[in-house]
Amino acid sequence: MIPRRHQAIVSPPGAAASGWPPPGAAASGWPPPGVVVILVPMLIRDATAGDWPAIWPFMRRIVEAGETFSWDRDLTEERARAFWLHEPPGRGRTVVAVDPAGTIVGTAETHPNHGGPAAHVASAGFMVDPGHGGRGVGRALCEHVLDQARADGYRAMQFNAVVETNTRAVALWRSLGFEVLATVPEAFNHPVAGYVGLHIMYRRL
Amino acid sequence: MIPRRHQAIVSPPGAAASGWPPPGAAASGWPPPGVVVILVPMLIRDATAGDWPAIWPFMRRIVEAGETFSWDRDLTEERARAFWLHEPPGRGRTVVAVDPAGTIVGTAETHPNHGGPAAHVASAGFMVDPGHGGRGVGRALCEHVLDQARADGYRAMQFNAVVETNTRAVALWRSLGFEVLATVPEAFNHPVAGYVGLHIMYRRL
Protein backbone atom coordinates (compact mmCIF):
# COMPACT_ATOMS: atom_id res chain seq x y z
CA MET A 1 0.00 0.00 0.00
CA ILE A 2 1.34 3.37 -0.99
CA PRO A 3 0.99 5.91 1.82
CA ARG A 4 -1.69 8.45 1.02
CA ARG A 5 0.69 11.33 0.97
CA HIS A 6 2.76 9.72 -1.77
CA GLN A 7 -0.14 9.50 -4.16
CA ALA A 8 -1.24 12.03 -6.70
CA ILE A 9 -4.33 11.63 -8.84
CA VAL A 10 -3.90 12.12 -12.57
CA SER A 11 -5.83 11.12 -15.64
CA PRO A 12 -3.44 10.97 -18.57
CA PRO A 13 -4.48 9.50 -21.91
CA GLY A 14 -3.99 5.78 -22.28
CA ALA A 15 -4.22 5.02 -18.60
CA ALA A 16 -7.14 2.62 -18.97
CA ALA A 17 -4.85 -0.38 -18.69
CA SER A 18 -3.97 0.43 -15.08
CA GLY A 19 -6.92 -1.55 -13.71
CA TRP A 20 -8.25 1.52 -11.91
CA PRO A 21 -10.99 2.36 -11.10
CA PRO A 22 -11.95 -1.03 -9.65
CA PRO A 23 -15.12 -2.76 -10.87
CA GLY A 24 -18.17 -1.07 -9.43
CA ALA A 25 -16.56 2.32 -8.92
CA ALA A 26 -18.41 3.66 -11.96
CA ALA A 27 -21.70 3.07 -10.12
CA SER A 28 -20.91 6.12 -7.97
CA GLY A 29 -21.06 8.37 -11.01
CA TRP A 30 -17.44 9.32 -10.70
CA PRO A 31 -15.29 9.31 -12.69
CA PRO A 32 -17.57 10.27 -15.57
CA PRO A 33 -17.67 8.06 -18.65
CA GLY A 34 -14.46 8.18 -20.64
CA VAL A 35 -12.34 9.41 -17.76
CA VAL A 36 -9.95 7.09 -16.06
CA VAL A 37 -8.07 7.68 -12.85
CA ILE A 38 -4.72 6.21 -11.98
CA LEU A 39 -2.63 6.42 -8.86
CA VAL A 40 0.91 7.62 -9.34
CA PRO A 41 3.34 7.09 -6.52
CA MET A 42 5.03 10.38 -5.72
CA LEU A 43 8.11 10.21 -3.57
CA ILE A 44 8.63 13.07 -1.14
CA ARG A 45 12.17 13.06 0.21
CA ASP A 46 14.69 15.45 1.73
CA ALA A 47 16.36 17.63 -0.88
CA THR A 48 20.08 17.37 -1.46
CA ALA A 49 22.52 19.84 -2.97
CA GLY A 50 22.48 17.68 -6.09
CA ASP A 51 18.76 18.40 -6.61
CA TRP A 52 19.29 22.10 -7.13
CA PRO A 53 19.98 22.00 -10.90
CA ALA A 54 16.59 20.31 -11.33
CA ILE A 55 14.78 22.79 -9.04
CA TRP A 56 16.14 26.10 -10.31
CA PRO A 57 14.70 26.03 -13.87
CA PHE A 58 11.07 25.84 -12.73
CA MET A 59 11.66 28.00 -9.65
CA ARG A 60 13.15 30.69 -11.88
CA ARG A 61 10.18 30.47 -14.21
CA ILE A 62 7.73 30.88 -11.32
CA VAL A 63 9.63 33.78 -9.75
CA GLU A 64 10.12 35.60 -13.06
CA ALA A 65 6.39 35.34 -13.78
CA GLY A 66 5.80 37.47 -10.67
CA GLU A 67 2.27 36.19 -10.18
CA THR A 68 2.52 34.11 -7.04
CA PHE A 69 5.76 34.81 -5.19
CA SER A 70 6.75 37.91 -3.24
CA TRP A 71 10.35 37.63 -4.36
CA ASP A 72 12.39 39.91 -6.54
CA ARG A 73 11.65 38.75 -10.06
CA ASP A 74 15.32 38.98 -11.03
CA LEU A 75 16.46 37.03 -8.00
CA THR A 76 19.86 35.47 -8.60
CA GLU A 77 20.28 31.72 -8.52
CA GLU A 78 22.74 32.07 -5.67
CA ARG A 79 20.31 33.94 -3.44
CA ALA A 80 17.41 31.65 -4.32
CA ARG A 81 19.49 28.62 -3.44
CA ALA A 82 20.63 30.16 -0.14
CA PHE A 83 17.03 30.91 0.78
CA TRP A 84 15.47 27.64 -0.33
CA LEU A 85 17.96 24.86 0.32
CA HIS A 86 18.12 24.63 4.10
CA GLU A 87 21.04 22.82 5.63
CA PRO A 88 21.69 21.49 9.12
CA PRO A 89 22.09 22.49 11.89
CA GLY A 90 19.31 25.03 11.29
CA ARG A 91 15.68 24.06 11.78
CA GLY A 92 14.82 24.67 8.13
CA ARG A 93 13.97 21.68 5.96
CA THR A 94 13.68 21.29 2.21
CA VAL A 95 12.02 18.42 0.38
CA VAL A 96 11.42 17.48 -3.24
CA ALA A 97 8.61 15.57 -4.93
CA VAL A 98 9.91 13.00 -7.37
CA ASP A 99 7.71 11.24 -9.92
CA PRO A 100 8.14 7.60 -10.98
CA ALA A 101 10.44 8.65 -13.83
CA GLY A 102 12.79 10.23 -11.28
CA THR A 103 11.87 13.77 -12.31
CA ILE A 104 11.71 16.44 -9.61
CA VAL A 105 8.28 17.97 -10.11
CA GLY A 106 8.03 20.13 -7.01
CA THR A 107 9.74 21.27 -3.84
CA ALA A 108 8.86 22.71 -0.46
CA GLU A 109 10.76 24.33 2.39
CA THR A 110 9.81 24.85 6.01
CA HIS A 111 11.32 27.16 8.60
CA PRO A 112 10.35 28.94 11.82
CA ASN A 113 8.26 31.97 10.88
CA HIS A 114 9.97 34.08 13.53
CA GLY A 115 12.76 33.43 16.02
CA GLY A 116 13.16 32.95 19.73
CA PRO A 117 9.89 33.17 21.67
CA ALA A 118 7.91 32.82 18.41
CA ALA A 119 9.86 29.97 16.82
CA HIS A 120 7.11 27.43 17.52
CA VAL A 121 5.12 28.66 14.53
CA ALA A 122 6.39 27.38 11.19
CA SER A 123 6.12 28.86 7.77
CA ALA A 124 6.63 27.12 4.44
CA GLY A 125 7.03 27.71 0.74
CA PHE A 126 5.96 25.53 -2.16
CA MET A 127 6.97 25.43 -5.81
CA VAL A 128 5.48 22.97 -8.30
CA ASP A 129 6.87 22.78 -11.81
CA PRO A 130 4.12 24.38 -13.94
CA GLY A 131 4.69 21.60 -16.47
CA HIS A 132 3.54 19.12 -13.82
CA GLY A 133 0.73 21.13 -12.24
CA GLY A 134 -2.79 19.99 -11.47
CA ARG A 135 -1.74 16.50 -10.43
CA GLY A 136 -1.88 16.92 -6.69
CA VAL A 137 1.84 17.52 -6.24
CA GLY A 138 1.24 20.66 -4.17
CA ARG A 139 -1.20 18.81 -1.94
CA ALA A 140 1.21 15.91 -1.46
CA LEU A 141 3.99 18.34 -0.55
CA CYS A 142 1.83 20.27 1.90
CA GLU A 143 0.55 17.12 3.61
CA HIS A 144 4.14 16.02 4.05
CA VAL A 145 5.22 19.41 5.36
CA LEU A 146 2.35 19.50 7.88
CA ASP A 147 3.21 16.04 9.18
CA GLN A 148 6.89 16.91 9.41
CA ALA A 149 6.27 20.23 11.13
CA ARG A 150 4.09 18.48 13.69
CA ALA A 151 6.83 15.91 14.27
CA ASP A 152 9.37 18.73 14.61
CA GLY A 153 7.36 20.21 17.47
CA TYR A 154 5.83 23.24 15.79
CA ARG A 155 2.42 24.20 17.15
CA ALA A 156 1.04 26.00 14.10
CA MET A 157 1.85 26.96 10.53
CA GLN A 158 1.48 30.41 9.03
CA PHE A 159 1.75 31.56 5.42
CA ASN A 160 2.59 35.26 5.26
CA ALA A 161 1.88 36.13 1.66
CA VAL A 162 -0.61 34.06 -0.34
CA VAL A 163 -1.61 36.10 -3.38
CA GLU A 164 -5.39 36.30 -3.38
CA THR A 165 -5.61 35.82 -7.15
CA ASN A 166 -3.79 32.49 -6.76
CA THR A 167 -7.16 30.92 -6.14
CA ARG A 168 -6.02 27.36 -6.71
CA ALA A 169 -3.45 27.68 -3.94
CA VAL A 170 -5.89 29.44 -1.62
CA ALA A 171 -8.45 26.66 -2.15
CA LEU A 172 -5.79 24.01 -1.61
CA TRP A 173 -4.59 25.51 1.67
CA ARG A 174 -8.19 25.90 2.84
CA SER A 175 -8.88 22.26 2.04
CA LEU A 176 -5.87 21.38 4.17
CA GLY A 177 -7.24 23.23 7.19
CA PHE A 178 -5.80 26.71 6.76
CA GLU A 179 -7.93 29.79 7.31
CA VAL A 180 -7.36 33.35 6.15
CA LEU A 181 -6.47 35.34 9.29
CA ALA A 182 -6.26 38.62 7.39
CA THR A 183 -5.78 40.00 3.91
CA VAL A 184 -3.25 42.79 3.59
CA PRO A 185 -4.92 45.14 1.12
CA GLU A 186 -3.20 45.85 -2.20
CA ALA A 187 0.00 44.33 -0.91
CA PHE A 188 0.91 42.53 -4.15
CA ASN A 189 1.32 44.13 -7.55
CA HIS A 190 0.18 41.43 -9.95
CA PRO A 191 1.42 41.85 -13.55
CA VAL A 192 -2.11 41.45 -14.93
CA ALA A 193 -4.56 42.07 -12.08
CA GLY A 194 -2.72 45.05 -10.57
CA TYR A 195 -2.72 45.61 -6.82
CA VAL A 196 -4.32 42.66 -5.07
CA GLY A 197 -4.37 41.45 -1.48
CA LEU A 198 -2.01 39.09 0.27
CA HIS A 199 -3.67 36.55 2.52
CA ILE A 200 -2.09 35.62 5.81
CA MET A 201 -3.15 31.99 6.28
CA TYR A 202 -2.87 29.89 9.40
CA ARG A 203 -3.63 26.55 10.91
CA ARG A 204 -2.84 24.83 14.17
CA LEU A 205 -0.90 21.58 14.00
CA MET B 1 11.53 76.14 15.95
CA ILE B 2 12.31 72.51 16.55
CA PRO B 3 10.43 70.21 14.16
CA ARG B 4 7.73 68.26 15.95
CA ARG B 5 9.30 64.95 15.25
CA HIS B 6 12.49 65.97 17.02
CA GLN B 7 10.74 66.68 20.28
CA ALA B 8 10.07 64.31 23.10
CA ILE B 9 8.18 65.22 26.24
CA VAL B 10 9.87 64.45 29.53
CA SER B 11 9.46 65.64 33.09
CA PRO B 12 12.75 65.15 34.89
CA PRO B 13 13.36 66.63 38.33
CA GLY B 14 14.79 70.11 38.41
CA ALA B 15 13.39 71.15 35.08
CA ALA B 16 11.43 74.10 36.44
CA ALA B 17 14.07 76.55 35.28
CA SER B 18 13.37 75.76 31.63
CA GLY B 19 10.65 78.41 31.37
CA TRP B 20 8.12 75.79 30.32
CA PRO B 21 5.15 75.59 30.60
CA PRO B 22 4.48 79.14 29.48
CA PRO B 23 2.44 81.46 31.72
CA GLY B 24 -1.23 80.54 31.61
CA ALA B 25 -0.71 76.91 30.64
CA ALA B 26 -1.55 75.84 34.16
CA ALA B 27 -5.09 77.19 33.69
CA SER B 28 -5.85 74.16 31.50
CA GLY B 29 -5.38 71.85 34.46
CA TRP B 30 -2.41 70.14 32.87
CA PRO B 31 0.26 69.60 33.91
CA PRO B 32 -0.94 69.01 37.47
CA PRO B 33 0.60 71.05 40.27
CA GLY B 34 4.21 70.17 40.93
CA VAL B 35 4.80 68.66 37.49
CA VAL B 36 6.79 70.52 34.93
CA VAL B 37 7.12 69.70 31.28
CA ILE B 38 10.12 70.46 29.16
CA LEU B 39 10.80 69.98 25.50
CA VAL B 40 13.93 68.06 24.69
CA PRO B 41 15.24 68.19 21.15
CA MET B 42 15.77 64.64 19.94
CA LEU B 43 17.85 64.24 16.84
CA ILE B 44 16.86 61.43 14.50
CA ARG B 45 19.61 60.74 11.99
CA ASP B 46 20.87 57.94 9.77
CA ALA B 47 22.85 55.37 11.70
CA THR B 48 26.51 54.79 10.93
CA ALA B 49 28.73 51.81 11.59
CA GLY B 50 30.25 53.81 14.43
CA ASP B 51 26.90 53.87 16.26
CA TRP B 52 26.77 50.12 16.69
CA PRO B 53 28.73 49.93 19.97
CA ALA B 54 26.14 52.27 21.50
CA ILE B 55 23.18 50.32 20.09
CA TRP B 56 24.17 46.77 20.92
CA PRO B 57 24.09 47.00 24.76
CA PHE B 58 20.43 47.99 24.96
CA MET B 59 19.44 45.88 21.96
CA ARG B 60 21.00 42.85 23.62
CA ARG B 61 19.17 43.61 26.85
CA ILE B 62 15.84 43.84 25.00
CA VAL B 63 16.41 40.66 22.98
CA GLU B 64 17.62 38.66 25.98
CA ALA B 65 14.53 39.67 27.95
CA GLY B 66 12.44 37.84 25.33
CA GLU B 67 9.32 39.85 26.06
CA THR B 68 8.88 41.96 22.95
CA PHE B 69 11.05 40.67 20.11
CA SER B 70 10.61 37.50 18.06
CA TRP B 71 14.33 36.97 17.84
CA ASP B 72 16.49 34.23 19.24
CA ARG B 73 17.30 35.37 22.76
CA ASP B 74 20.93 34.35 22.39
CA LEU B 75 21.33 36.12 19.07
CA THR B 76 24.97 36.90 18.37
CA GLU B 77 26.12 40.47 18.02
CA GLU B 78 27.29 39.72 14.50
CA ARG B 79 23.89 38.51 13.33
CA ALA B 80 22.04 41.31 15.09
CA ARG B 81 24.27 43.87 13.41
CA ALA B 82 23.83 42.26 9.99
CA PHE B 83 20.07 42.32 10.42
CA TRP B 84 19.72 45.79 11.88
CA LEU B 85 22.36 48.02 10.29
CA HIS B 86 21.23 48.35 6.68
CA GLU B 87 23.73 49.56 4.16
CA PRO B 88 23.38 50.87 0.62
CA PRO B 89 22.58 49.92 -2.07
CA GLY B 90 19.71 48.01 -0.45
CA ARG B 91 16.42 49.74 0.34
CA GLY B 92 16.79 49.17 4.08
CA ARG B 93 17.41 52.18 6.31
CA THR B 94 18.54 52.48 9.88
CA VAL B 95 18.29 55.55 12.08
CA VAL B 96 19.21 56.44 15.63
CA ALA B 97 17.64 58.85 18.13
CA VAL B 98 20.24 60.98 19.87
CA ASP B 99 19.52 63.06 22.96
CA PRO B 100 21.05 66.48 23.67
CA ALA B 101 23.92 64.86 25.57
CA GLY B 102 24.83 62.93 22.41
CA THR B 103 23.59 59.61 23.82
CA ILE B 104 21.93 57.15 21.46
CA VAL B 105 18.65 56.37 23.19
CA GLY B 106 16.88 54.44 20.45
CA THR B 107 17.08 53.09 16.94
CA ALA B 108 14.78 52.00 14.14
CA GLU B 109 15.18 50.13 10.88
CA THR B 110 12.93 49.98 7.83
CA HIS B 111 12.91 47.49 4.96
CA PRO B 112 10.52 46.09 2.35
CA ASN B 113 8.30 43.53 4.08
CA HIS B 114 8.47 41.22 1.08
CA GLY B 115 10.30 41.36 -2.25
CA GLY B 116 9.45 41.90 -5.89
CA PRO B 117 5.74 42.44 -6.52
CA ALA B 118 5.16 43.07 -2.80
CA ALA B 119 8.10 45.38 -2.11
CA HIS B 120 5.89 48.48 -1.90
CA VAL B 121 4.85 47.58 1.65
CA ALA B 122 7.46 48.43 4.27
CA SER B 123 8.09 46.91 7.64
CA ALA B 124 10.08 48.37 10.50
CA GLY B 125 11.63 47.55 13.84
CA PHE B 126 12.14 49.80 16.85
CA MET B 127 14.36 49.54 19.91
CA VAL B 128 14.40 52.14 22.66
CA ASP B 129 16.93 51.90 25.46
CA PRO B 130 14.84 50.83 28.47
CA GLY B 131 16.82 53.32 30.53
CA HIS B 132 15.39 56.10 28.36
CA GLY B 133 11.84 54.79 27.96
CA GLY B 134 8.60 56.68 28.44
CA ARG B 135 9.95 59.91 26.96
CA GLY B 136 8.42 59.68 23.51
CA VAL B 137 11.53 58.32 21.80
CA GLY B 138 9.57 55.48 20.20
CA ARG B 139 6.96 57.88 18.91
CA ALA B 140 9.61 60.22 17.50
CA LEU B 141 11.31 57.30 15.76
CA CYS B 142 8.07 55.97 14.31
CA GLU B 143 6.97 59.37 13.03
CA HIS B 144 10.33 59.71 11.32
CA VAL B 145 10.13 56.22 9.84
CA LEU B 146 6.61 56.84 8.50
CA ASP B 147 7.67 60.10 6.85
CA GLN B 148 10.76 58.48 5.38
CA ALA B 149 8.88 55.43 4.11
CA ARG B 150 6.37 57.70 2.41
CA ALA B 151 9.21 59.65 0.81
CA ASP B 152 10.80 56.38 -0.30
CA GLY B 153 7.66 55.47 -2.21
CA TYR B 154 6.21 52.78 0.02
CA ARG B 155 2.42 52.60 -0.03
CA ALA B 156 1.86 51.03 3.38
CA MET B 157 3.63 49.77 6.47
CA GLN B 158 3.10 46.42 8.15
CA PHE B 159 4.37 45.10 11.47
CA ASN B 160 4.40 41.31 11.47
CA ALA B 161 4.83 40.47 15.12
CA VAL B 162 3.71 42.93 17.78
CA VAL B 163 3.43 41.04 21.06
CA GLU B 164 -0.07 41.65 22.40
CA THR B 165 1.16 42.02 25.98
CA ASN B 166 3.40 44.89 24.85
CA THR B 167 0.43 47.16 25.39
CA ARG B 168 2.43 50.37 25.39
CA ALA B 169 3.75 49.63 21.91
CA VAL B 170 0.32 48.52 20.66
CA ALA B 171 -1.23 51.76 21.94
CA LEU B 172 1.57 53.81 20.41
CA TRP B 173 1.17 52.20 16.97
CA ARG B 174 -2.59 52.63 17.16
CA SER B 175 -2.16 56.31 18.01
CA LEU B 176 0.02 56.61 14.92
CA GLY B 177 -2.67 55.22 12.64
CA PHE B 178 -1.96 51.50 12.69
CA GLU B 179 -4.74 48.97 13.03
CA VAL B 180 -4.57 45.31 14.05
CA LEU B 181 -5.30 43.31 10.88
CA ALA B 182 -5.14 40.00 12.72
CA THR B 183 -3.77 38.40 15.85
CA VAL B 184 -1.94 35.13 15.37
CA PRO B 185 -3.09 33.11 18.36
CA GLU B 186 -0.51 31.91 20.90
CA ALA B 187 2.28 32.77 18.49
CA PHE B 188 4.63 34.20 21.14
CA ASN B 189 5.85 32.41 24.24
CA HIS B 190 6.23 35.19 26.79
CA PRO B 191 8.54 34.38 29.74
CA VAL B 192 5.89 35.47 32.24
CA ALA B 193 2.52 35.50 30.46
CA GLY B 194 3.04 32.26 28.51
CA TYR B 195 1.58 31.85 25.04
CA VAL B 196 0.15 35.16 23.85
CA GLY B 197 -0.91 36.48 20.47
CA LEU B 198 1.15 38.35 17.90
CA HIS B 199 -0.61 41.27 16.29
CA ILE B 200 -0.13 41.98 12.61
CA MET B 201 -0.48 45.76 12.40
CA TYR B 202 -0.88 47.86 9.30
CA ARG B 203 -1.41 51.36 8.03
CA ARG B 204 -1.47 53.00 4.63
CA LEU B 205 1.05 55.75 4.00
CATH topology of chain A: Aminopeptidase
User: Cα-atom Rg of chain A, whole angstroms?
Assistant: 18 Å
Shape of chain A: globular
Which band does the percent of strand residues of chain A land in? 25-35%
Number of helices of chain A: 4
Helix coverage percent of chain A = 10-25%
**What is the annotated CATH architecture of chain A?**
3-Layer(aba) Sandwich
Are there runs of chain A of 5+ residues with pLDDT below 50, and where? 1-21
- Quick one: CATH class of chain A? Alpha Beta
CATH superfamily of chain A: Gcn5-related N-acetyltransferase (GNAT)
Distance between the termini of chain A: 26 Å
- For the biggest β-sheet of chain A, the strand order reads 3-4-5-6-7-9-8
What does the average pLDDT of chain A come to? 88
Subunit organisation of the chains: homodimer
Q: How many structural domains of chain A?
A: 1
The largest contact between protein chains, plus residue counts on each side, is: A-B, 37 and 37 residues
Number of strands of chain A: 9
Structural class of chain A: alpha+beta
Q: In sequence order, what are the helices and strands of chain A, one letter per element?
A: EEEHHEEEHEHEE
Largest sheet of chain A: 7 strands, mixed
